[in-house]
TrEMBL record:
Residues 9-76 form the HTH gntR-type domain. This is GntR family transcriptional regulator. Gene3D superfamilies: Chorismate lyase-like (3.40.1410.10), Winged helix-like DNA-binding domain superfamily/Winged helix DNA-binding domain (1.10.10.10). Keywords: DNA-binding, Transcription, Transcription regulation. One of its GO terms (biological process) is negative regulation of DNA-templated transcription. GO terms for molecular function: DNA binding; DNA-binding transcription factor activity. InterPro entries: Bact_HTH_transcr_reg, Chorismate_lyase_/UTRA_dom_sf, Tscrpt_reg_HTH_GntR, UTRA, WH-like_DNA-bd_sf, WH_DNA-bd_sf. The keyword DNA-binding applies. The keyword Transcription applies. It holds the Pfam family GntR.
């Protein structure tokens, strides 16, 4: 580590940069950093100075505090890809080992809760699964599935890629989806499943997917906010200026 010297740059700012390099280059995500006492003794500064430097890095999201345990480097965030693919395929592409725990699977009446085009008293398959990557819980999924498109879905092994099962067993390819994203805090049940504290931030995705115009899946997924982020590419476009915007154009 570098040393802290007297000079125009405040000591807490010098320590902050030392800890930044430590967190970004030397320590793996989720690693503990030295205690306030150890840092104060190592660099010859007060614990107030240490607290100020660490606090700024926590505010930036580079470090995280765990009550009663200490301060850690932040876990790596997985960048969610906004395209129609399975969780399993997405994790494998990232070099991670996906796994799935089926919490429950059965039939129920979604009523107006699910966008599956069913009659009010019709039943659908209700599937709840916990998704992991390299053993870490990342997402809790609660979904409804059409019994017309996917009959006897509850008899399948649902611990793998559901989209692969749908394609292999039913010959169905999901070709269209509408997805909505919002933020929530974890309730007690979801927090326990994802191994986070109640009230922790979550990213929530509701996806309604169809195959050749037939509604097939209506699933809501709660992702850990400390491990996931969403990146979108935004291009400036002028309404009406696209390739099909000419008057009299064909469709």
């Amino acid at each position: 580590m570098h040393e802290i010297v007297d000079g125009p740059k405040p000591k807490h700012a010098q320590l902050r940069e030392i800890l930044r390099r430590l967190a970004e280059h030397d320590l793996a995500p989720g690693s503990p950093i030295p205690s306030e006492r150890d840092l104060a003794e190592r660099f010859g500064v007060s614990r107030i100075t240490v607290r100020a430097a660490v606090g700024q890095l926590v505010a930036e999201g580079l470090l995280t505090r765990a009550k009663g345990r200490g301060t850690f480097t932040a876990q790596r965030r997985y960048d969610l890809q906004l395209h129609l693919t399975s969780f399993t395929s997405d994790m494998v592409t990232r070099g991670l080992e996906p796994s799935t725990e089926v919490i429950s699977c059965g039939e129920g009446v979604p009523g107006g809760k699910a966008a599956l085009g069913l009659d009010p008293d019709e039943t659908a398959y209700r599937l709840v699964r916990l998704r992991r990557a390299d053993g870490a819980p990342l997402a809790l999924e609660r979904g409804w599935y059409s019994p017309h498109v996917l009959p006897e879905l509850d008899r399948c092994d649902l611990t793998g890629s559901l989209y692969e099962i749908i394609a292999a067993r039913y010959g169905v390819q999901l070709d269209h989806a509408r997805q909505t994203v919002w933020a929530e805090t974890a309730d007690g049940e979801t927090a326990k499943a994802l191994e986070v504290r109640k009230g922790s931030p979550l990213l929530v995705f509701r996806r309604v997917a169809s195959s050749q115009g037939r509604p097939t899946e209506d699933v809501t997924s709660w992702y850990r906010g400390d491990l996931y982020q969403v990146t979108m590419q935004l291009d400036r476009t002028v309404p009406g200026s696209g390739p099909n915007s000419a008057k009299g154009g064909t469709t």
